[in-house]
Amino acid sequence: MSDGQGDAGLEDVVDGLLEVTSRVHHVVCSVAARHDLTPQQLELLRMLAVPVSMRAFAEELSCDPSNVTGLVDRAERLGLVERVPDQSDRRVRILKLTTKGRNLRSTINQEVARSLTNALGLSTDDHAKVMSVLAAMTSATKPPRTD
Amino acid sequence: MSDGQGDAGLEDVVDGLLEVTSRVHHVVCSVAARHDLTPQQLELLRMLAVPVSMRAFAEELSCDPSNVTGLVDRAERLGLVERVPDQSDRRVRILKLTTKGRNLRSTINQEVARSLTNALGLSTDDHAKVMSVLAAMTSATKPPRTD
DNA sequence: GCTCAACCATTGACTCCCTCAAGTATCGTA
DNA sequence: TACGATACTTGAGGGAGTCAATGGTTGAGC
After folding, report:
1. Which segments of B7-125 does DSSP mark as H helices, in order?
2. Hey, are the CB atoms on B130 and A134 less than 8 Å from each other?
3. What b/e string do you get for B62-90 counting C-beta neighbours within 10 Å, with b at 16 or more?
4. Is the CB of B59 under 7 A from strand D?
5. What CATH number does the domain located at A19-139 have?
6. Cβ B17–A116 below 8 Å, yes or no?
């Protein structure tokens, strides 16, 4: 519509991408709600496959460290995660899932996979083709630079 | 890892999907921040291509109507949107972009498209292949049922 | 025509998410 | 040992979101 015809399909790709993103978000919220979690708490569980420091976690999330404090406060209150003091540096707290947290993480991962499959019809698609498209997108630039 | 080999690739597809979703979200937040908007305000602009009632908007967003009130309050304060009383039903307020809102919407759409292209390497991909994958996902089930 | 249930939008109370600015404790180094 | 960096926390403040309750409006039945 705007300039030529070179990018004829780009607008559609962008719209499709945003639509898919919206559906994924919807699925994630729905699974989270089922377990009385916020989407952020669910994301915290997903990211804690391996213990990390508060600092490292804030960087992975690209957010302020003080935000992680609050996030972890609430997750700790739910008994999902614990702060373990680092042996070599007493300033550092290592975030680790509790047994309850690990179990919930596993359950949630399964439910997210199943719900996404239903919501997006993943099972009826050619996984290889889908993967190649997704892989191309995520490998384009390693750091999530936005511009 | 879990059961057989039938779903061998599903876990990877899910992970890839969540990774792409995360990157898209990051891009959207970044574009929004550039214009002193929250991601939700940006989404509001995107969705208001055509005027709708508060009620209809809440349904599109799958959220409580009172949330829309707040969202629109802030957008109105920024001069991006206005509430127009409906002629045929005086309970209803129609949401309409102002000229400023329409201009910003257009700018933002371009910026989102450009940033997504950069962040996900869309330009180097085969648009047709990407579109066919995205279309399959969004057409799988019309209503965004999550389960 | 009048009444009453249903409906649209708003308000207030509450929680979570998030950022920024300060503050505390610890580390590493000179 | 003193000092600048680093890791985390705290407090203030605002947006996002839900729920319950309220006011104005509509529409259907009597």
Report:
1. 10-34, 39-47, 54-61, 65-77, 99-120
2. no
3. eeeeeebeebbebbeebebbbbeeeeeee
4. no
5. 1.10.10.10
6. yes
| B146:A118 CB<8 A | yes
**Residue bearing the bigger pLDDT, A84 or A132:** A84
Whether pLDDT at A53 is above 80: yes
Which residue's CA shows the smallest distance to C1' of C16? A38
CA dihedral B14, B16, B21, B26 (to 10 degrees): 150
Read off the pLDDT of each residue in B79-85 and give the average, rounded to a whole number: 98
- CATH class given for the domain over B18-139: mainly alpha
What type of residue sits at position A60? E
Question: Which residues have CB under 8 Å from A99's CB, separation 6+?
Answer: none
Give pLDDT tens digits for B28-42.
Answer: 999 999 999 999 999
Q: Report whether pLDDT(B98) > 70.
A: yes
Nearest by CB to B144, from A23, A133, A141: name it: A23
Measuring from the CA of residue B66 to each C1' atom, give the nucleotide at the shortest distance.
C10
pLDDT of residue B2: 43
Residue A123 is predicted with a pLDDT of 78
